[in-house]
Each structure stands twice: as C-alpha cells, then as structure tokens.
Amino acid sequence: MESDAGLGLDGMGGSMTSILSDQLEAHPPASTRDSVSSFTSTPSRSLSTNKKNVTPIPANLLPSAPASPPTPAPSPTPHQRPPNWLSSDEEENTFLLNLRIHFSTLSNARKQKLLEGILDVCDSQQLSFVSSYVGPRLRKDPFLVFPNELCLRVLSFIDDPKTLARASQVSRHWRELLNDDITWKNLCEKHAYAVRRISNDDEMEPSTPRLVDSRPESHALNRRLTASNEASIESTPGLPRTLSGEWLPPSSFSARRRRARPVSYRSQFKQKYMVESAWNKGGRCTQRHITPDQGVVTSLHLTPKYIVVALDNAKIHIYDTNGDNQKTLQGHVMGVWAMVPWDDILVSGGCDREVRVWNMATGAGIHLLRGHTSTVRCLKMSDRNTAISGSRDTTLRIWDLATGTCRNVLVGHQASVRCLAIHGDLVVSGSYDTTARIWSISQGRCLRTLSGHFSQIYAIAFDGRRIATGSLDTSVRIWDPNSGQCHAILQGHTSLVGQLQMRGDTLVTGGSDGSVRVWSLTKMAPIHRLAAHDNSVTSLQFDNTRIVSGGSDGRVKVWNLQSGQLLRELSSPAEAVWRVAFEEEKAVIMASRSGRTVMEVWSFAPPPDEYEDSVAIESASSTPGIGSTDDTDLTINPRRRKLFSDPPPTVSSSDADQPMPDASS
Fold first, then answer.
1. Confidence grade of residue 200 (pLDDT, cut at 50, 70, 90)
2. Nearest-angstrom CA–CA distance, 390 and 379
3. Which residues contact 83 (CB under 8 A, 6 or more apart)?
4. 422, 428, 431, 436 alpha-carbon torsion, rounded to 10°
5. Bias regions of kind Pro residues — which residues (predicted)?
6. What is the DSSP letter of 158?
7. Distance (Å, rounded) from C-alpha 133 to C-alpha 9?
8. Partners of 290 in beta bridges
9. Which residues contact 522 (CB under 8 A, 6 or more apart)?
10. For residues 528 and 564, is the Cβ–Cβ distance under 8 A?
C-alpha cells in the first residue's frame, strides 16, 4: 500500500512538476526570468525514472505539510517551442514588419485583394481614418514634379488674372513660376494688350495716341504723315512712335515723363488691367470747370500736352492734360467752328472767315490767314507746315504755315465743304452738293469725284484703303480711293449720319436717330446695333476695346466694342453733351448743365505707386532654374493687393469746380 501510494504520489508529483515547468517556461515570473537560464544549463534529469531513491511522504503529514518548491524545469527538447521574451508591443511591431515585407512581395492583384479583405472588416471609424490618411497622399503638387517649361505651358492656358494672383500665394515655387515674364506676356496677348517690351529708358506712355479729336473725321487715324516724311523720320534715330504706329513730335517727349514706366510684361499687364477695370466701374473726376457765360462747344481736342476747347463765342480755352487752366486765345471776332492742333501749333477758323495760327505754349498768334469768303467749316493738317481748310464758300485752301501764305485754292464743289479727311498726300472732302472729292495736296488738283449720295454729306473718314461717307440720306457709303467706285452701301440708320470713325476693318457710325452702329468692313455688314441715346449722337469715338458716345439727351455712355454691351454711364446726366474725347487713361466731357458749359476731366490711371512691382523680373526666359524669391517677396504690401481688386469709388466732381476765366493768360 505504501509503495503503491508512494508511486501514485510520485507519479502525480512528477506530472504536476512537468506541467508547472511548461507554464514557467512559457510565462516565467519576472523575478525568476534571469535565474531560469542557470537552471536550464544543468543536466536534465527525470524525476520519475529513479523510483527507488524516492522517500515516501508519511500519510499523516500530507494534509498539513506545506508543498515543497517546484523542481527547476528541464531544458527544452528539440520538439518544444523556444521561449519568447518579447513584449506585446515588440511582438506587434515584428508582426507589422513581417506583414509589410510580405505585402511588398505580392503582386498588384494580390495586394488589392488583401486590401479589400482588410477594408471589409473595418468599421466606419476606421474607414474614416483611412480616408483622411489616404486623401492628402493622393494630392501631389504637379509643379514640383513637372519641368518648369511644362508648368509654364500649363499656366499659359489661364485667362483670368485673379486666378493667377491667387495661385501665386499657394507656395514659394508657384510664386516663382508666376513671376516668369512669359506667363504675363501670354496674358497680355490674350487680353489684346500691347506686348511691346518696355524699358526704363522709354519715355513714352504706351498706346497713347498722338492726337485725339472729338470729331471722328478729325481723328488721329486721318492725320498720318506723308510717305516721304515717314521715310525721313524713320531714318532719324531715337524718334519714338505710339503703339498705334504714329510718330510723335520731338517736343512732346517731356510730356510723357509723368511716371516710371513698366519694366516687365507683368507690370505692363498690371497697369493695363487696372486702367481697364477703372473704365468699367471706376475712374474719378479730377477737374471741373464752369464757364461764366453760355457757349456752345464746337470742337474739342485732347493731345499729349493740351486740352483745347473751341466755343461759338469766339474763344479758345487751353488747359494742360490735368485740366488746370492755362490760357485763353482771343483773336477771332465770331464763333470758332473748326480747329486742329499739331504739337504746340494750333490752327483755327470760324465765322469771321479767317484762319489763325497760334503757339499754344505761349498763347501768341503766329499768322492770320485770309482768303475765304465765308465761314471756315473744317480744318486738317498734313504736316507741321501744311494746313487745309474747307469753307462754305465751296472751296478748299492749302496753307503754308511757315510763310503764312496760301499755296493752292481747290475749286470743284458746288456747295459748302462740310468735312475733311487726310491720309498722306491725299485729302478727301465731303460737301453739301452730295459729292466727295479726292485731292492731291502736292499737285493742288482734284483726282476723283465720288458721286452716289442723294443728300448732303456730313461726315467722312479715310484710312488710305477705304473712304467712308455719312449723309443726310441716312446711308453710309464705302468707296475705293484708287478707282472711285462705291464698294458698299450700309443702311440701317433712320436719320442723318453725322458721326463716323474708321479703325482697321471696323467702322462705327452715329446718327441723329440716337443709334450707334458697328460695321464690319470685310463683310460690309452690321456687327452691333446700339440704341445709345434718346436723341442725336453728338460725339463718338472708339479704340480697340470700347466705344464712348455722347448725345443730346445729356448722357455719356461707354460700350464694349467686342460684345456691344453697355458697360456704364460716365458722369451724371446733363442737359446736353457737346463733345467727348478720350485716350487710354483720360476722358474729357463738355456738357451743358444749368445753362452753363461745364468741362469735366476724368482720370482712369491708377496712382503712381500702384505701378511698383514687388518682384524684379531679370529675364523673360522660361528655362529651368528660375531665380529664387526672397522671403521678403512673399510679403504682399496691402497697397499692392489692389492689383486685381475693384477700382476705387468715384470721387464727386463738385469738389474741384473752377470757373473758366475770360483772361487771355
């Protein structure tokens, strides 16, 4: 019994020891982990094999005797798993590392299948984390990947400057790309801005016409120099031209130094864009003059140096381009109905049948030219020393302004000569006898007679290729100056066509019916029909982008030339608008208000500091390696933020009211 009991306990003890050893081996206590290695280094022995040496425990001691300490675990056999001493975090990191290594070895199809399986067991919170984690990694900055040439090519498709302005604030690299001059040159071309490279030494203001006349037949397009003079001037070094191709008199250069000119296409676009925005919904009235007496404005000219106003009370007022009063020319004894400026020279004529030549710089009279026997109704100059006058006495006279003598008297019309247009050596006259005639200035003779109108001719335009005439018979006729043939009859007006201006392949007409019409001279068809005014169109002028019209209804309206859309009304309504003249950054309005003649000078030019460019463009090249931008370049001056913002509000013109003086100086 004792031996059997001993064997049974011995077997039970060996079995428990073996189990405990396995547990300790798998999960050793922290206090004994270091000592386990010493135990495992001793020779292994079986507790159950040496049964003879085991002393049996007395039965009476079993219930109360404390359990003896466990026998050290034997060394693991080759069939047992080695112990894992890593923490749970380390195990997890090892598992993830192995998973990543295994995942990288899979094919794309297996990778996608594994990801699908993982995502299928994720809850909404985990999927939201995946979305927020993956989203930013799918968005890459293409401008950091593509070469600079390709980036600039992408930017060239952006037409909106506001988009480019916002894009320049994304990052330093984007700003460097957008400071490249190629981008802004392309934008200038898309917006039809002049793309002539401008330097600091350029003293001219870009795209400012040499001379602007409120009367279409007196527009600068019709005051081109003769071919011989053009050839001689082109050979003169340093003599600049406007962007429209017209030569500027040398003495007018100093008037161009009003501000530092743009030195990059970016600066040029900025200036043009701000001016265009001001025309659309900004601008300010910088000067306002009121005549002390009544007077009808018969002629208005805006030159690079002067604003010249002629009245039917025999007075001529001269202002600088800012509208500051300079002097009044007095000499005519009756109303002045025609005048034409050339640099500092002014030629005027009126009801007193006299033609007077003035020096506008000094206000002194140079010549008094007599010969006409009736009112001088129209005047033109072909060069500084040659003037042509048309009169109600049916004749034209060619005057030598250097000597103050009449070169030729051109006879042929049977009624009053109402309008003139000049191109090179040719002058075209329109008459109340319903005909137009082409004359040679140098030869002093009539070359061709243009017949076809049924009533008086009131307006004429000539660009060297075509002649346009507007008549009381409500039609506009287009003539070939070489053959004298009528190419087309443009019909649509219902009353007198008294306003004409031709520019390239576009013709704009205004009539007493209050309408303004835009015609294509290539198709000989109307482009736009504008219901402009409630009464006669008294003044009309257009450039490459806009049309400005004034009417007897007292309103001045600005139209988009391309779309025919009304952009705005300029100034407040008056009793009547006599004349309007404008250039790129300025407009002059002559109107009747409360029985008096009022002159308003409107400016659309941004302040001088707005021309400053925050980044200097060293080159127009788009090659890789665009110059880096300093940290200071990323700081945007609040003033410069106005580049693509709305223009400033209109300033009330009543703050600058000044009377027109009667004094001669």
1. very low
2. 6
3. 25, 26, 28, 76
4. -150
5. 66-81
6. -
7. 63
8. 598, 659
9. 505
10. yes
3-state helix, strand and coil shares in percent for the chain, rounded to the nearest 5: 25, 30, 45
Residue 542 near residue 561 (C-beta atoms within 8 A): yes
**Residue 664: pLDDT above 70?**
no
Report the candidate in 585, 603, 582 with the shortest Cα–Cα distance to residue 651: 603
DSSP letter, residue 196: -
CA-CA distance, 646 to 280, in Å (whole number)? 10
DSSP state of 63: T
pLDDT in tens, 359-412: 999 999 999 999 999 999 999 999 999 999 999 999 999 999 999 999 999 999
Name the token pair of 75: 């060394």
Contact of 547 with 540, CB cutoff 8 Å: yes
Q: Label the pairing between strands 515-520 and 506-511.
A: antiparallel
Q: What average pLDDT does this structure show over 590-595?
A: 91
Give the pLDDT score at 565. Answer: 94
**Closest of 425, 6, 459 to residue 218, by C-alpha:** 459
CA distance 74 to 86: 22
Q: Quote the tokens at residue 158.
A: 């952006």
Give the mean pLDDT of 502-531: 95
Contact criterion met (CB below 8 Å) for 322 and 286 = yes
487 close to 473: Cβ distance less than 8 angstroms = no
Residues 590/599, Cβ–Cβ less than 8 Å:
yes
User: What is the C-alpha to C-alpha distance for residues 435 and 527, in angstroms, rounded to an integer?
Assistant: 27
Bridge partners (DSSP) of residue 223 are: 422
* Distances, alpha carbon 36 to alpha carbons 29, 403, 494, 606, in Å: 10, 129, 117, 89
Q: How many CB atoms lie within 10 A of CB 374?
A: 14
Q: Which of 358, 382, 501 is nearest to 349 (CA)?
A: 358
| CB contact at 8 A, 514 and 537 | yes
Phi-psi region of 18 (alpha: psi -120 to 50; beta: other; left: phi over 0): alpha
Q: How many CB atoms lie within 10 A of CB 358?
A: 24
Flag whether pLDDT at 169 surpasses 90. Answer: no
Say if residue 45's pLDDT is above 60. no
Q: Cα–Cα distance between 566 and 251 in angstroms, integer? A: 38
| Distance of alpha carbon 292 from alpha carbon 663, whole angstroms | 12
Contact 290, 596 (CB under 8 A): yes
* Three-class SS state of 588: strand
d(CA 322, CA 469): 35
At 479-502, the pLDDT tens digits run 999 999 999 999 999 999 999 999
- 238: tokens are 């340093």
What pLDDT does 663 receive? 36
pTM of the model: 0.65
What pLDDT, on the 0 to 100 scale, is given for residue 617? Answer: 32
Q: What is the residue whose two structure tokens read 């070939």?
A: 480
